[in-house]
Amino acid sequence: MIMDIISVNWELPEADIGGLHFNRQEVQATFELKGDGFYHSRDVLFLSPRNTAKDTSRDILSEYLNSEPVKASFQTALQSECEVVFALPRENEGVKCYNGVPCWYWLQDKLARYVGYYQVADMRGNYNHGIANVVCGCAPVFAVADKSEYTN
Question: Of 62, 56, 64, 70, which is closest to residue 88 (Cα–Cα)?
């Protein structure tokens, strides 16, 4: 059954990926199904630098979101064995908060003209950009993937 709103108590696991440490965190997460077929987080769920080298390194934040421990913890929170694929939102969705305080959050795409810069939404919900190793919020989106179609 497809639901428009999903709320979960989610324990994000501790991890070390690419020299970046992610602390264990417990979050109350609410996701809303949007027209793009992804469930979008209503709030910033945790703070993290993207920590991406100039222009060729893999994005460590995305790697963390799609790591097996994060996926397993989300499946536990959902009480489902469905396969999930996490991403960052492509578009600015206005103001989002972290613990009730408006916060910058990362968007998915790099800025083509600036090496090492990514798109962000600022505390007023405006489009902006930030250097890839600054602390900013993560308001992930996820989709449910057919296991036969999904590969890492």
Answer: 62
